[in-house]
Amino acid sequence: MANSKYEYVKSFEQPDILLPNTWIVVRIDGRGFHKLSDYYAFKKPNDRRALDLMNAAAVEVMNDLPDLCIAYGISDEYSFVFHPSCELFERRNSKLVTTVVSSFTAHYIHQWNSYFSSTPLQPRYLPSFDGRAVIYPNTQILRDYMSWRQVDCHINNLYNTTFWTMVLQGGMNNTDAEQELKGTVSADKNEILFKRFGINYNNELEIYKKGSVVYRQYELQDPNPVQTSVDDDDGSGASSVVPGSKPSRSQQDKLRKLRRKARVVVDHVDIIKDEFWDRRPWILSNAPGKLPIEQ
Ligand code: ATP
Ligand code: ATP
Ligand code: MG
Ligand code: MG
Q: What is the Å distance from ligand 1's center to 158 Cα?
């Protein structure tokens, strides 16, 4: 091992280890997708191909990184969640973020042609993503984070659906539609859609209304109403980790192997209520469930 006089520069590298025993969320977001979606003629308000491509890339990231327990995507963003017990890259912030971002971007670009065969990628307009890691100290706050993103999905989608219906079907210009929607609440938008255009917002596709949740599939559990509380950490996943204790390397390898066996699925369901989490306890507990029989 060379020990040159230049070695000292290594001491300039700053540690960026994320707080132990906390949930880590890496959120990535498409850079300049407003323009990019115009350039590649995404359909407004929702281009199904673009969402399917985002989901396909997210599934591959989950396959690449078995340490991930769940991911949630809307529009040009995806949130990837690492468990409090995760020790990948010694929990180094920049390593985790850059790995997720580059893995996602690579798969997104790799699979572009399968979804946008009529509009191949142009080298001067390539999709890229930024990313950040945020830590959440307990399961309740992690769940609130996920709920926040799903509520955002609903608010944006209702707004965008109404706006684009007024423009594309109602023949309004963008400024007039924007003006009319200013200060409106959900009920007003539902009414505009229904009364003027005969559209019942409830009948819109779930993928648009709920976003996409990506996780490993095991046998669903019976929801047990007695154990639904997420108010205290005892009913939640973080409890399976003894605070302060690190899973050994061999324990981590074993868990990774088990997780790799599970199929990664994409769902468009409510993740705000308890039911989703109660039926899939492995997501928050870090203990792999039972593989479904058909696998
Ligand atoms: P930034 O670089 O700051 O993220 P941005 O242009 O990507 O800027 P966002 O707030 O991330 O802005 O919004 C993403 C935009 O991409 C949406 O407003 C929408 O115009 C477009 N977009 C993303 N996904 C789709 C989709 N599936 N269908 C249609 N448009 C989409
Ligand atoms: P994200 O990047 O978080 O997925 P998005 O980019 O898909 O969000 P936008 O496309 O930014 O969502 O929403 C389109 C436009 O509508 C934006 O200019 C935003 O400011 C505006 N907007 C969204 N929701 C509302 C609302 N409830 N009332 C008024 N304007 C809104
Ligand atoms: Mg963006
Ligand atoms: Mg965005």
A: 15
Ligand index nearest the alpha carbon of residue 37: 1
Give whole-number Cα distances, 137 to 78, 141, 295, in Å.
20, 7, 35
- b vs e for 247-285, b when ≥16 Cβ sit within 10 Å of the residue's Cβ? beeeebeebeebbeebebebbbeebbebebbbebbbbbb
Counting ligand 2 atoms within 8 A of each CB, the residue from 47, 77, 159 with the most, and so the one to mutate, is 159
Give the other-Cβ count within 10 Å of 151's Cβ.
11
34 lines ligand 1 (CB under 6 A): yes
Q: Is the pLDDT at 235 greater than 80, yes or no?
A: no
For domain 17-157+206-225+233-295, the CATH architecture is 2-Layer Sandwich (3.30)
CB 30 near ligand 1, within 6 Å: yes
| Pocket residue to mutate for ligand 1, from 31, 34, 39, most atoms within 8 A of Cβ | 34
In tens, the pLDDT along 133-153 reads 999 999 999 999 999 999 999
- For 2-49, how does the pLDDT look when each residue is reduced to its tens digit (9 = 90+)? 689 999 999 999 999 999 999 999 999 999 999 999 999 999 999 999
Please state, in angstroms and rounded to a whole number, the distance separating the CA atoms of residues 23 and 25.
7
